[in-house]
Design a protein that fits this description.
Oligomer: single chain
Strand content: under 5%
Number of helices: 9
Radius of gyration: 31 Å
Organism: Azospirillum thermophilum
Shape: elongated
Number of strands: 0
Pfam families: TPR_21
InterPro entries: SecYEG/CpoB_TPR
Protein name: Ancillary SecYEG translocon subunit/Cell division coordinator CpoB TPR domain-containing protein
Order of helices and strands: HHHHHHHHH
Keywords: Membrane, Transmembrane, Transmembrane helix
Largest sheet: none
Distance between the termini: 112 Å
Length: about 210
Amino acid sequence: MSDIFREVDEDLRRDRAERLFKRYGVYMAAAAIALVAGTGGYTAWRNWQQSRHEQETAALVTAISQTAQGPEKGVEALSAFAGKADPRMAALAQFNAAALLVRQGKPADAAAVYDGIAANGSVDAVYRDLATLLGTMQRMETGEPAQLQAKLQPLTADSSPWRFTAREMTAVLAVRSGDKERARTLFQQLADDSAAPAGVRSRATDLAALYGKT
């Protein structure tokens, strides 16, 4: 008797399953297809991204190699690459182009390139800050000290990886503005900071002593 009930129960379940499939089978199949397509699409997208990255890296290397034909040629090739590359790769090209402009004795042009990197929200903040630092560096002798110090101020925070260079540059700008007492204080702070790079501490020690005598 129990076998009969089991067969009836199985028939009912089978019938229910058939009704469910007739009602929702199309959606279930579509979902399965979407899942497979999605997985395949993601794999294809990831492969495409990898391929694109490799192609852009090769193109960047080619652009950099143009510097062998002269800095002007290198700047031209790097600028052309940056105009069509992914923001991060474009930033790498621009950093290289700016360095070439510095070598050519064109600090204003280099600073303008660094400004472009610093203003690009698609570039990681740490690299935008580096661009701000380097752009300020190119204006150290000609820019308005107060304005340059304002640009550097966020980079002097303890959380900034560029803080020691930013603090050293701030002290130099204090000298330019005639505030030697502030310069001495800043240099002494750097000299006493055990976390500062040895080169920065050595220079700061000498300059703190120098401006302490005046």
